[in-house]
Design brief:
heterodimer; A: 617 residues; Beta-lactamase; 7-stranded mixed beta sheet; 5-stranded antiparallel beta sheet; 23 helices
Chain lengths: 617, 365
């Protein structure tokens, strides 16, 4: 024991107690320094990481921008759509849940199960949609049964609402689910699988203006990703407002006049190039695409021989037929091939190089001058004049009016049509040009093709005596604070030079078409306004000979072989404002089938203008 | 045997410090498990039970003179080694590592028992060997065998944390007993060589842990997950902490093993630097008080016993804290009085009982 005490009292042992205590304190100080480093110096970084750990961002859909007509009348809006979703984390007995839910939704359990499996690729805090766009009744029924349906949510999402249904659908376009390729491009960085984007026409081209800004909902999740509570909401901003150049009243009138026929009609403001009405028939309802179109519905649309998905105004290429005579007449006058007084005797046909070309009037028109040739659409007069003019001069003149190349429609899909020339034929067919081809080109047949939009632009150019205007679709784009983001200005693509005398001579002819006896366009005659116009009836297939006419049982030409009916016009003739082009596919006669449609559009335009003037007074 | 002086010498400072730390630990456990929802017996209540049991054990240990333990040191040691061998054999047959013997109500961990046994045994050896100058290699071969035999068995389990603990405790006691300069340098060299050689003897998961410790961000969702989440929890507590039951890392379960090895991270997140400072202060106080008890001990056995127990508590604290704040690799060592677990609590309270015993009998010889 004594030994014990003496050992303990040794200074060297006593010092060990001190050393140990100090060493312990030093090590604790080291721990404390580390804590200081983590909790004070690295605080901000680690604090942020802890916030990121526990928070997730849910996107809130932005309502797409509304689309108005030129006067601010709503054409496309958003409506609330109810959807039934399931929060996977809150479901314990899925089978029982789906068994109860399926009859309420009117679906089967397999369908719900499939949706569930599909939703598993998303994090657990994201609800899985089980049924989209259900009726208010279904939504309310589900809400009433919510106690028996743990985990089921009813949500409201903005959905595109096309107030005018299929009207101008080809201009507006439709939506669809964003594709993988789109998601990978820079343009769609905000998008996620399942989102809707514009797929065609305006909805596609102006998607960046229409999409708006998604909102964000900050939620707290636990380590398994279970949603615990909502922390913060940044609301979504709706997309910008687009005011189209369309006039709803005029559009409706054009739709109504067109009825169930196939074809296209377009009305242009000749001072600005604004497209006031645009009809492509048959049409489709863009609403079908909002929630993903069903396979058989899509098939029906895509395989319809009348091509409802095609915008025939810009991509339908038709032989312009006699409407082309306007350009031929202008060019011939400018080049001095004919004067206004020259008469050509039409005996009903024209022979060159052993081939016989008929006038539409078998008996012939007799002695015919320019005015009569336009008024009565004498083919023989134009055969002669066209041949004298030559294809290359004719072609150059036509191109000046915007034919044969895209006229600058602001949305995609415009076709260029065809204006043939000697060089063109050499390039595409590697064959020389024949005089007979000039003959039929002079009446807008043969190789010549044009779109209804090109014909309308041509007509507007005639109406304003030389200004080729770029067609406009957008009047302006505004944000919700009223700032104008886009306001396209009138754009003159080029000026076509003709002397006033030439313009006047052709205008007289076009007025005569509609307003004089024997005029082919009398169907477009209006009492209170002078309409200038030109009919056209374009052959779909070239008839082999005079005698050989295919007829069906009722003694009529079968639908697919009937000629297209065309009518181009502008009004009022003395002070033009509106140009119209109408193509009725297989409409048989330009005057009878297309004329009334052009007339209805012009009549409505004039009536609206009168009403507006009265209102101003 | 029982004396009124014992009551008057009862170490209130020690028991109150221990109860304070354990109380904070239980409150922290309440928070760490708050998100678990309804459980038959909440963990903090179970821990309270373990604490009560531990206090009873500590008091029982106080009843008899610690000097009697000298005679049982060897017995306890042998029993522990036998249990270690048993566990090893059991582990071989039942696939994977087994560290405990199921006693029905309690999983007895021989690794814990051996810590106490080694402390007792070394205390006895150092008390009996009069060596005022310091031990040399020649006197050390016997204690070295005593220590390395169980350490080898524990490493075989494999339980790197416990093995390191035994080495640290023994080393601390050895250093206190005093070493000759040459011996000290020699042992240091051997230690370094063993560490280098040991790297190759480690299991893959143990090596992964050490690599992860060097660079946890290399595998943030795998082996680095624990340490990254723990650092985020501790650091995001900041100066004042997020508040009791307000720690998002803890309450939303991002922090793994938050009721056991990472209990301190929960505390650090919710109480901040201020709370950590306070907690570390009391832990340090406990250590210094343990050394104070050793210094006042009536004999060399008591002295070494107190040094050994204090070393055990100290190294658990340091290794656990070092681990959760990213200073040391994750080796699975609990924080005494703080981490949930009956074994740790009982071992710690046995140590506290021994300290009290030595403290109470400081004037009796």
């Amino acid at each position: 024991m004594g030994l014990d005490l003496r050992w303990k009292e040794l200074p060297v042992v006593q010092r060990r107690f001190l050393i140990y205590s100090v060493a312990a304190a030093m090590i604790f100080l080291l721990l404390l320094l580390r804590l200081w480093y983590l909790q004070i110096i690295s605080y901000e970084v680690l604090q942020e990481r802890s916030v990121r750990n526990r928070t997730r961002v849910l996107a809130l859909d932005a309502p797409r921008g509304p689309i108005y007509d030129r006067n601010g009348i709503l054409l496309v809006d958003n409506r609330p759509s109810f959807q039934i979703s399931v929060m996977r984390q809150d479901v314990e007995d899925r089978d029982a849940l789906f068994k109860r839910l399926a009859p309420l939704l009117g679906t089967n359990i397999e369908g719900l199960e499939a949706r569930w499996q599909e939703g598993k690729r998303f994090p657990v805090y994201r609800p899985v949609v089980l049924a989209e766009d259900v009726s208010r009744d279904v939504m309310e029924t589900v809400q009433e049964h919510s106690v028996e349906l743990p985990g089921i949510l009813t949500e409201v999402r903005p959905v595109r609402d096309y107030l005018e249904h299929g009207s101008a659908a080809h201009l507006i376009g439709y939506l669809g689910e964003v594709t993988e390729t789109e998601l990978q491009s820079d343009e769609f960085t905000d998008y996620r699988p399942g989102d809707s984007v514009g797929k065609t026409a305006l909805e596609r081209t102006f998607d960046s203006y229409l999409r708006g800004a998604k909102g964000r909902k900050l939620v707290e999740v636990d380590v398994q990703g279970k949603l615990l509570r909502q922390l913060q909401v940044e609301p979504a901003y709706p997309g910008n407002k687009i005011y189209l150049t369309l006039d709803r009243g005029l559009q409706r009138a054009a739709d109504e006049a067109f009825g169930d026929q196939s074809g296209a009609a377009i009305a242009l403001d000749i001072k600005t190039g604004d497209i006031l009405a645009m009809v492509s028939r048959p049409t489709f309802n863009p609403a079908l695409f909002v929630r993903g179109i069903a396979g058989d519905e899509w098939k029906k649309l895509a395989q319809d021989p009348r091509h409802p998905l095609q915008n025939k105004v810009i991509s339908g290429q038709y032989p312009p037929a006699s409407t082309f005579k306007i350009v031929v007449a202008l060019a011939a006058l400018r080049e001095g091939v004919v004067g206004t007084k020259r008469t050509i005797d039409c005996k009903g046909d024209f022979v060159i190089g052993g081939s016989r070309y008929r006038c539409w009037k078998k008996r012939g028109h007799g002695p015919t001058n320019l005015k009569k040739a336009l008024r009565e659409s004498c083919d023989v007069w134009f055969y002669n004049v066209g041949l004298e003019l030559g294809i290359d001069k004719l072609s150059a003149a036509a191109k000046e009016f915007g034919l044969g190349s895209p006229v600058g429609y602001p949305l995609p899909g415009e076709r260029s049509g065809v204006i043939p020339s000697q060089e063109w034929k050499r390039r595409y067919y590697n064959k020389p040009w024949y005089a007979g081809e000039t003959v039929i080109a002079s009446i807008g047949q043969g190789f010549v093709l044009s779109t209804p939009l090109q014909l309308a632009v041509m007509m507007a150019t005639v109406a304003n005596q030389g200004k080729v205007l770029k067609p406009q679709v957008i009047r302006r784009i505004e944000d919700w604070d009223g700032n104008v983001l886009v306001a396209p200005e009138t754009e003159v693509i080029r000026e076509v030079k003709y002397t006033p005398k030439v313009w006047k001579a052709v205008e007289d002819g076009l007025v005569a078409v509609v307003n004089e006896p024997h005029g082919t366009g009398h169907a477009a005659h209006l009492d209170d306004v002078v309409v200038a116009g030109k009919t056209g009836t374009s052959q779909v297939v070239r008839r082999k000979s005079d005698e050989e006419e295919e007829l069906d049982d009722k003694g009529e030409i079968p639908y697919r072989l009937r000629p297209h009916a065309l009518f181009v016009a502008y009004a009022p003739a003395e002070k033009p404002e509106i140009a119209v082009a109408v193509v009725v596919e297989h409409g048989q006669s330009g005057g009878r089938a297309a004329g009334p449609i052009a007339k209805a559009i012009i009549a409505r335009y004039m009536a609206d203008k009168k009403a507006a003037l009265l209102e101003e007074d | 045997m029982f004396d009124r002086r014992l009551v008057s010498n009862f170490d209130w400072v020690l028991i109150l410090t221990v109860l304070l730390l354990a109380g904070v630990g239980i409150a922290n456990l309440y928070s760490a498990t708050a998100s678990w929802g309804a459980v038959a017996t909440p963990l903090y209540l179970k821990q309270l039970l373990w604490l009560s049991g531990g206090v009873v054990i500590a008091l029982i240990i106080c009843l008899f003179d610690y000097r009697h333990l000298q005679h049982f040191a060897v017995h306890l040691y042998v029993i522990s080694v036998v249990m270690l061998v048993y566990v090893l054999v059991l582990g071989k047959t039942s696939m994977g590592a087994t560290r405990w013997i199921n006693l029905g109500f309690f999983n007895l961990q021989p690794g814990e028992v051996i810590k106490v046994a080694i402390i007792l045994l070394l205390a006895r050896i150092f008390a009996e060997t009069a060596n005022p100058v310091g031990f040399g290699f020649f006197e050390l071969w016997k204690p070295a065998v005593w220590i390395l035999l169980p350490v080898g068995l524990i490493l075989k389990e494999p339980d790197l944390g416990t093995a390191a603990m035994v080495v640290f405790i023994a080393g601390t006691m050895l250093l206190f007993a005093g070493l000759k300069r040459g011996t000290l340098i020699g042992l240091g060299l051997i230690g370094i060589l063993t560490a280098i050689g040991g790297w190759f003897g480690l299991h893959d998961y143990q090596r992964a842990r050490i690599r992860t410790f060097m660079n946890p961000e290399a595998d943030p969702l795998g082996s680095g997950y624990h340490i990254i989440q723990s650092k985020i929890a501790v650091g995001s507590g900041g100066f004042w902490g997020k508040g009791y039951i307000q720690g998002s890392q803890s309450q939303l379960s991002f922090l793994p093993e938050r009721h056991t090895d990472f209990a301190f991270s929960v505390f650090a997140e919710e109480w901040g630097f201020v709370g950590c400072f306070g907690l570390l202060f009391f832990y340090l106080f406990l250590i210094v008080w343990g050394l104070y008890i050793a210094r006042r001990a009536a004999d060399r056995f008591g002295l070494f016993l107190a040094v050994g127990v204090t070393a055990m508590i100290f190294w658990h604290i340091v290794v656990n804290l070092g681990m959760v704040i990213g200073l040391l690799p994750v080796v699975g060592v609990p924080l005494p009085l703080f981490s949930y677990g009956g074994t740790s609590m009982v071992t710690t309270m046995i140590g506290v009982g021994l300290l009290m015993n030595v403290s109470m009998r400081r004037f009796m010889f």
